[in-house]
Amino acid sequence: MIASRIRESFAVLQTIVAAAGLPAAGAKPIRLGENDLWRLPDEIVVRISRVGQEHVATREVAVARWLADNAVPAVRPLPVEQPVHACGRAATFWELLPPHQPGTEADLAPLLRQLHDLPKPSFPVGKLDPFVRVANRISSARTVGEDDRQWLLRRLEDLRQEWEALPAGRPACVIHGDAWRGNCAVSGGEARLLDFERTSVGPPEWDLTSTAVAYDTFGSLTEEEYHTYCELYGYDVMAWPGYETLRGIRELRLVTFALQTADYDSAAFAQAQYRIDCVRGRRGPRPWGWEAVG
Length: 294
Known about the structure:
Elements: H1 2-19, E1 28-32, E2 36-40, E3 44-48, H2 54-69, E4 84-86, E5 89-95, E6 101-102, H3 105-116, H4 134-140, H5 146-164, E7 173-175, E8 184-187, E9 190-193, E10 200-202, H6 204-218, H7 223-233, H8 243-262, H9 269-279
Antiparallel strand pairs: 1-2, 2-3, 3-5, 4-5, 6-8, 7-10, 8-9
Helix pairs in contact: 3-7, 4-5, 4-8, 5-8, 6-8, 8-9
């Protein structure tokens, strides 16, 4: 299944790079998931969006250039006309980062503070939709039992209602949208933001909840590490009355991502079911020790 996924993605890559006047020979996959990332031999990263995400690819490039204009450390798009369209998909082209290591929450917090403090850009970035693709993931999942599927759909509707009734929080701003440490890289002593697919205008608490969930739900952060993150950003989202709703939405998204992954990678099935059992109250209180999938 994984090998066929690579072959399918490479066939799309060949068409895309040909349209851009670049060779595909020697390309290596970096990650095939929500989007497909490939490295070309001449230190170019190609990011291939899913079908129907052309507007997202265009926005990603605009956001990255806006961050460069405002001196926010981030991955940079190539100075070429993009995105490139082929096979019903949109692709963008980026500078390859120098040798780097994954960032930590302590690296991420100051970058988020810098981003959240920026004035809104002149181009439209759209409004945060925290439920994007969740319903479709639940309905189309092939590895979930019908009882669990119906529970997840009911949970989704409950969270939609809670989202509409969130208590007042910090002022809306441009947010990253998927602000976990995997979207931060450190090279040469400098931390950079990556992946602007979900960048939009919304509550900054949404970005901060990602790290809170790493501590609260995954149990992958110590109390000291979480407190350091809060100190570096200057705010603890877990003290906000709306936190439990955002945590619930994040957890549901993480459940449905595992279900989506399990449809093409059987190794993710056990983790997907474990996550369902956790949110349904079958596995005791948090933290639940969720493991990464995909």
